[in-house]
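Lab notebook, bench 4. The sequencing result for the construct came back, and we need a structural model before the next group meeting so we can plan mutations. Quick request posted to the team channel:

Model the 3D structure of this chain.
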Amino acid sequence: MEFKQNKQIMIPVMVIAIFIFVVSFASLYTERQISCGAAQTCTIPIPFLIPITASMGVFVGTLVYYLMATKIIKKNINIDRSYKIIEKLLNKEEKDILKIITEYSEISQARLTSLAGITRLKVFRILERFKEKGLIEKHQNGKIRMIKIKEDINNIFK
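Done. Here's the predicted structure in token form:
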């Protein structure tokens, strides 16, 4: 699995490296021809060098986008699926609490109770279930209990 991911990353990197090499070589060649005074014998006409290089840049950029876009689209589809699955597993009150926590990313339990409009006991029990499932982290800040959503869960809901 790791090799496949590295392979998908290396292909666009190699394409970009080849493009940089070609552009560098063309620039060096043209510079040498001009500095030697032999610009008239340059096999690539100088007025065409810039459009050729620009079109190669557009081609390489499009190719890299094509190779990377499929990976990004697949990732977004997986995130959407994960979100829908999680949403099906939660009841309305749990969804509301999870939305509030993701909105604030870190919130006190007292403020969460007031924003959710649910009793303190219900909020406490829901938060304990979330903690057991690994959705949130709870920590004390003096007498205040702070609730923070885990990063991987936060990425799904944002």
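The first helix runs from residue 2 to 35.
Will bring this to the meeting.
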